[in-house]
Amino acid sequence: MKNKNNSKNKRIVKQQIILVLSGFFIAFLILGISAKVVLKNQQENYEKLDYLVNQSNAKSSQMTNLSDAIRDRMLIVYDILNTTDIFDIDDKSMLLSDRASDFIIAREKLMSLDLTEKQKDELVDQRKILKQAQIALQKIVFNALNETGNNQSDLIKKARDVNAGVLIRLNNMRLVQTELSQHELKAAKSSYKSTREKMVMMGLGGLAICLSIVFVVIHQIRAQGDTLTDVMQQLEDSNQTLENRVEKRTKQLIKTREDNLRMGAELDISRQLQKVILPTEKEISEIDSLDIAAFMEPADEIGGDYYEVLKHAENGGVLIGIGDVTGHGLESGMVMLMIQSIIRSQSTATGCDLIKMLQVANKTIHDNVSRMNSEKNLSLMLLDYQQTAEGESDEPDKPAGIVRYSGQHESMLVIRSNGQVEEFDTDELGFPVGLVEDADDFFKEGHLELYKGDTVVLYTDGITEAANAEHELYGIERLREIAVANFKSSAVDIKDKIIAHVKQYIGEQKIYDDLTLLVFKQV
Amino acid sequence: MKIIKDDGYKVEYNAADKTVDFSGTLRLSGLTEYAPIVECLETAVDDADSLTLSLKDLSFLNSSGIAVLSKFVIKARNKPDFSLTILGSDETPWQGKSLKNLQRLMPSLTLELL
Known about the structure:
Number of strands of chain A: 10
Mean pLDDT of chain B: 88
Largest sheet of chain B: 6 strands, mixed
Distance between the termini of chain B: 25 Å
Helix content of chain B: 25-40%
CATH class of chain B: Alpha Beta
Strand content of chain A: 5-15%
CATH architecture of chain B: 2-Layer Sandwich
Radius of gyration of chain B: 13 Å
Structural class of chain B: alpha/beta
CATH architecture of the largest domain in chain A: 4-Layer Sandwich
Helix content of chain A: 55-70%
CATH topology of chain B: Transcription Regulator spoIIAA
Structural class of chain A: alpha+beta
Distance between the termini of chain A: 78 Å
Largest interface: A-B, 14 and 17 residues
Shape of chain B: globular
Order of helices and strands of chain A: HHHHHEEEHHEHEEEEEHHHE
Order of helices and strands of chain B: EEEHEHEHE
CATH class of the largest domain in chain A: Alpha Beta
Radius of gyration of chain A: 71 Å
Oligomer: heterodimer
Number of domains of chain B: 1
Low-confidence stretches of chain B: none
Mean pLDDT of chain A: 87
Strand order of the largest sheet of chain A: 1-10-9-6-7
Low-confidence stretches of chain A: none
Number of helices of chain A: 11
């Protein structure tokens, strides 16, 4: 990522350098080209002007020559007229020819110059007219030579008028030429001016480009500087935020870990308690008169299920208990511990007087939890099994055992040896233990005869209230069904089948309450 | 009219009608958290000689709550000639057994399960 940014930056810088250099290059190029163009222009103008001036001068000079030639010829003719000396006239006539040649040469030269069409036409016209003058002059000279013609005045007049006209026209030509020249000069000047202006514009343009490049660069530099400052600030802020977050998170983690440790410790203790005070496999298996199987699986959130199987020495019977403490956690575990010791001690003290035991349990638990400022109470059912004499001697069709039971808990299921199911509701036989201070009158005793092959199923609501994915409860119906389906099996098998059935029903769902199951069968 | 209200529940005491209506779910932990409700119920008992508790809209009550109600019923039982009625719903799972237990605490309690 760093390298990518680096090369990206380098590329941007390169681009900018190239841009700037290109800009300057273009600016200088423009200036260069414009300078060259201007110089060329100037050169052209100069040459043009030079040519014009030369032409003008040449034209003027030739026109002057023409004018002079014409005037001189007139003068010579006057001289000729005023001379009587033949030889003089001859000389002058030669001179006349010479001046005529001069005229012709001058005109030739003039024609070869850069004349407008108009000017050329003018000269051609003049030629025609001058021809007349020429003829007139020739006649005058001839007459003078031959001493004929007294009064040449008409001819003279004609020649003089024509020549004057031509002179005027030549003068006009010269004026026009001058005008033209001035005009050309003006044009040249304005061309020069416009060229100068163009140069200035281009110069300014070039300068503008340079300046704008400079500004852009400065702006870029500033912007990059600002960006840099921003980025550094952001970095600092980010760092600070990060530090804050890390600090906060660390505190959170520490607290969570402490909480977890504590909860873990609580759960461990509760679980230990449960394990420690539950009846062992060995104890259970030592009971001959009943085939007993027990199962307890604590949920992740510890409930406080209780069960007991006590072989009591006094009358050879078996004390069985099952209960469910409200709520969860360490307190529930403690209440279960209390109950276990109360029941055990009271079974001996009362000689298995179930009602008395429950009354004592109620008062003790109530007072203890009040002290703890807790609201814990429990459902509790106690059963006392006694084998009958007939049971001992294995007499058929006679009850093999008697079960007295007391306390309010989940309904007891009895599956008879013929597969019949009986459900015993215990609501009227007790009251939640520890809920109220005085519940003595609520505890009543029930009575059950067990024949060989009969099965009793005791459980907590963790079984009947186990939920599947659709939040439907397992319920007592399913429990009955599965128990009945397996009633002929041993207690262990029945227990296993029931648990498997419940677990299958729950599937992947979380188990929220302890699963407790106690199955005993009259053998 | 006294209303105790919080996240997920409402307890409304109408002194004129002599009713206390519960609605929502109550899962407060321990007597201390239930104290305002306890106080409200005790006031209701003191204020008149009869009271109707409506629980049919209370979809859940935890064990602490049931303990609170039990203690309240005992208090009501101890007041002479106090007439207490509790309205519940057969469809609400926790109510069946617990409300019957309350009635056993106070036999004169009128229990109507709808």
